């Protein structure tokens, strides 16, 4: 059952004023720009409530903007009472399972890192109309967007923004040692090799955490490796390129890192950079921002750079996706869809509120200059990332067995084993075995 | 807390009191029979609230989780099919499963040993009279009162590969090397240390619990019994072995059993410290079950893993508890 | 005179031995707490320097983390929620577990043995599975996203333990006392209320303390059933707002834990006193 398309007559200013007057909403205080941008929402959602569940954004100001400005203004304008709840992003799957089991909960729910849309799609509302309309309106979705939310030809979620994990390095240390900027992984390795004896090793998480899943895939894909073929039928992990990437990781570890990386979690590289030790890290700009807030001396020498290229010149940045969905059991799907459309339309404002963290999935919103990163000279390079962004399963789709592969940290485990001394061949066999087992289980089901 | 507040049943107790006063004159078997039925009625009435609560809110969900374990339930399919022991079979096929199984057992045994030793010694010490006793008692229970989600996070920082306070102290004392050398332990990153680090946090958190239960047990031994034993010339150890120990044994065992089940199903410590890493070195069954069942949405397999120990432990516990209940002294 | 001095010396030596024995325990228990306390007042740059001494301030202490805690998060609401939930759960546990414990300990009910064991077995089912069907129960009761949901759910893990603990305590009450009371015309209920309960007060109080503490520990149920910021208890609220993405607000996190844990520890201590008093006052006749 697809939801009826909301009727959208071309709003004349006269109509809008009349609508707002009858709605009795006190919109005088709202920004004029938002009002003019907003589509005129149909009257049937007036007086309803909308409940949204999302993560605690790592930039508190974004949550303040979202909770107190965006939702409030839209809600007032459309006569909808909106309540926004937050839980830690790693626990969203648990809450989602609970709401699924209960058959009740929020109207809009979000996933970050672990994208379970394709898993839950039978219980989610079909959002194809919004997906297509927004794609048309904003210059099309980037290629990786589709596989996050597509199931059986329809779209069950809206990818709103992704988070980059760029190379961030200490220019002062590089310059002092005549090192070239880490434009390739080989240069990054040379830098680590040179700087480790001087007390400035690097680090990437060789552990079971979300960033490990992302970082090692960036290296894997950059070296030409792949997880699935575009059809999603074949696992392509077992390849020469993967072996190259594994060998590289071992060398990088031996030459440029210390054993502490085995205990790292998502926040460890932030701390490493902020403490002044790291010569470079590969992490979201949260590391950059943390350093800005806690160690100004180190910060002024910290530079964000383009994703390093692998031996074949390929650059791939595996990103953390964030997808918004609507439950089928929601009693207010109409308002939910309207609000989601509004969120897409105001994505640029969201990017500003997030200090440049939220990267848009829509091409039209990624035009330069982008908010914050377009104007901050140290972050301008991030604007060049959209074409090289990838997601789990690259270049194939993000299907359910891949989600299990991600949840069981198979890729980080492969790299950890190699770093710990297991032979590349043995690790390859183990890794392929895990993939095969997981895929077979899902085929059986 | 007055007796009045315990009269949950309203008219019943007064009715019963009336019946008692009417039946007061001692008679023969009839009197005995009605006394028995009164006793039974009273007993079941007292038991009812707790039993009902648990049956409805735990028993029913337990049956549901059994259903999950034998079906192909996952969050994608609203309707699940019965698949027998298939989920258990897939679990057996995973090496990670056996690693988690072994780790769970190791965790349980090592933690139990330390908790008993530490808890008992502490309880003994706290039994003594000395100035400052109240303060010390107050201090040692704090680990137990801090919300686990946050105290474990504190330990995460204390074990940090760079900033570990523990390493800072040990290296200042000369027991380990400097940061960056091989003898600087990476608590959560070294496969040999990770599980131990988690066990240490669990022990730290719950040994006050063991001590309190023991203390409560010790202090509930009637003084007159102890005095009688003293008068009879028993030494401290004899008193302990023959008088105190049997009396507190039930309480001790309850504490021990509960601690066992709490530890076995406890997710928080490992989940927050290592997520089961590095490379599954510290993965325990609840964490694995959570990752497969909830995070990956495969409810059937997650339930099977979570419930795996039940058929093993249930009979043991059953026998143990029956034995315990039979002790009358 | 010589005897008195030796006695005092003996006493002092005994005390010293005890202190020596206690030192490792106190150190183990308190060392992390002390560290947490210092961290709660440390400035962030102070915390993130490796060469800084972790046990004292290298830069001036600050109240910033507490300000964040109280003014930028819902901490106040969380504390109130946690305490209220814990109190209600303690009451429910008391009302159900005390009678149940007594029934199982003293009333020689057939099948009671198996009921008791079944009640205990419920602990073998891990919460990670239980929370799903409980989710449905909570939704059916209309309590989803209110802290009352937790008041309903927490007794599931406090009642079994409470029952068994109290069973143990009730068993230590001499049968003769009860029988004497019943012969005096008290009846079963009277014997229970007027004789057994007062004597077992320490056990009852212990059960109350445990119920209270256990309900302050839970994270999973709180996460699954309560999402709104002002309805959460502390263990759920704190990680939600003080761990954002991969950034941890250490100072505030530590402060949050201590502000909740320390008063409860003080409360504990108070109760522990009460039941020691209860014992020396009651039983030894």
What is the secondary structure topology, with strand pairs?
The complex is a heterotrimer of chains A (445), B (329) and C (285).
Chain A: H1 13-23, H2 32-37, E1 49-55, H3 60-78, E2 81-87, H4 92-102, E3 108-112, H5 117-120, H6 128-137, H7 143-149, E4 150-151, E5 154-155, E6 158-163, E7 167-170, H8 171-176, H9 185-195, H10 210-222, H11 240-256, H12 268-274, E8 280-282, H13 285-294, H14 296-299, E9 302-305, E10 317-318, E11 320-326, H15 333-345, H16 347-353, E12 359-360, E13 389-390, H17 400-407, H18 410-419, H19 424-444
Parallel strand pairs in A: 1-2, 1-3, 10-13
Antiparallel strand pairs in A: 3-11, 4-5, 6-11, 6-12, 7-8, 7-9
Helix pairs in contact in A: 9-11, 10-18, 11-18, 12-13, 17-19, 18-19
Chain B: H1 3-6, H2 11-23, H3 29-69, H4 86-93, H5 95-127, H6 133-140, H7 142-145, H8 148-158, H9 165-172, H10 191-220, H11 223-231, H12 236-265, H13 268-273, H14 285-295, H15 299-306, H16 310-326
Chain C: H1 2-41, H2 44-47, H3 64-72, H4 75-106, H5 112-121, H6 127-140, H7 148-153, H8 155-171, H9 175-183, H10 187-199, H11 201-217, H12 220-225, H13 234-242, E1 243-244, E2 247-248, H14 250-282
Antiparallel strand pairs in C: 1-2
Helix pairs in contact in C: 1-14, 3-14, 4-8, 4-11, 8-11, 9-10, 11-14, 13-14
Characterize the structure shown.
The complex is a heterotrimer of chains A (445), B (329) and C (285). Chain A has 19 helices and 13 strands. With 445 residues, chain A is an alpha/beta fold. Chain A has two domains: 22-163 and 320-380, D-Maltodextrin-Binding Protein, domain 2 (3-Layer(aba) Sandwich); 167-318 and 408-444, D-Maltodextrin-Binding Protein, domain 2, CATH 3.40.190. In chain A, the strands form four sheets. Chain A has a six-stranded mixed β-sheet, sandwiched between helices. In chain A, strands 8-7-9 form a three-stranded antiparallel β-sheet. In chain A, strands 4-5 form a two-stranded antiparallel ribbon. Chain B has one domain (88-326): MetI-like (MetI-like fold). Chain B contains 16 helices and no strands. With 285 residues, chain C is mostly helical. Chain C has helices spanning 2-41, 44-47, 64-72, 75-106, 112-121, 127-140, 148-153, 155-171, 175-183, 187-199, 201-217, 220-225, 234-242, 250-282, and strands spanning 243-244, 247-248. In chain C, strand 1 and strand 2 (247-248) form a beta hairpin. The two termini of chain C are 35 Å apart. In chain C, 58% of the residues are buried. Mean pLDDT of chain C is 81; it is low at 278-285. Chains A and B meet through helix 4, helix 12, helix 17 and helix 18 of A and helix 14 of B.
